[in-house]
Amino acid sequence: MTDHPAHQDSPDAAPADAPAHHSDDADSQAFRELLRGLRVWDVDLPSFDPATAPAEPLPLFRQWLREAAEAGVPEPHTMTLATADAAGAPSVRTLMLHDADERGWHFASHRGSRKGRELAVRPRAALGFYWPAVGRQVRVHGPVTAAGPEESAADLHHRSTGALAAALVGRQSEVLGSAQELARASEAAWERARREPEAPVPSWTLYVLHPEEVEFFQGDAQRRHVRLNYRYENGRWAQELLWP
Length: 244
Description:
Elements: H1 18-37, H2 57-70, E1 78-84, E2 90-96, E3 99-100, E4 105-110, H3 114-121, E5 124-131, E6 136-146, H4 149-157, H5 161-169, H6 179-195, E7 204-209, E8 213-218, E9 226-233, E10 236-242
Helix pairs in contact: 5-6
């Protein structure tokens, strides 16, 4: 598709703020040129033969995350989490994966956070992992359950002092009055986290997404991407290839 220059009004019809409008047009054009000039997968990418994939998705996911880390992907355990509210309006954010095992993919948050409130009314979610250095992404979706208080507490207290301090601050997703208010609450939380490494945070909740589908995407510089999708049905995992 070819971009065409915007129609220019005559000088008599131009609004008073026309110079700013022209400046906005120039900024928009420069931004579009920036986007179009960015290179995608301008590196050697690994190959992926779906015929060698295991019967279940978990071993392959663990392998791919390990290989992303070895390839130098920063924070390969970060992921996007998509949830929806009672009306079906979606929201998405980035957070850390805490574990992936036979039960599912683990993450945590406060029950009163936006994600916690949405999962309470719609206990389903989707996860997305993207590792650009190897041209790979993984998508996971399915129902979500909340772990009990003991397991949730153990999850938190196995993490860093900073993670505990952040959890002790609490009030996630609430409106913040000022940066100074946050600084005071954070300082107090850090002091308590150092003093009480087992300090309880009752609202902290571990969530487990039980996968119904897991898709593995291997990028290809010639756009012949490989997409292997696992679907759980009738008590077993089925595999299928998808068009890119």
